[in-house]
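Good day; I would like, with your permission, to put a structural problem before you. The record follows directly beneath this note:
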Amino acid sequence: MSTLLTPEQARFVSGYIKPAALAAKRGPLDPVPPATHIPATPDPGRHTSAAARDAFGLAQISKQAQAVLEVIRIAHKHGVADLTGREVRAWWQKVHVGKDIDTSTLSPRIGELISAGLLERLPKRFCTITNIQAGPVRAVAQQTRLTA
């Protein structure tokens, strides 16, 4: 069931008349118009939590980004030197059988990993899935043990 707006309600929604003028003419069954301003309340713990998060290494990236990094590292172990976004998605489907990840979810995670210095961008090449030029990424080599 759709609700049609009266001309006065339509003018209110578009910002031509003030809420008080409309409230006086509103009937008992008419919907209350949404608030035009919601005051922002500062989060007092926000700055300390951000500082605590930044104090850790991998803890500063999301769990989903860590999962993406793990998929890329698995692909590297199988001989794949670099991956485009679509190729990472294909490897995600191989590693997490039956689960998919949207490109709109994957792209920000790759950007997050690049910003954290865990992935690096390489020169563009043709993607093996889309056959379109794309910028592949690869995991940055990590030191796994100390040598004497």
Q: What stands out?
A: The mean pLDDT is 76.
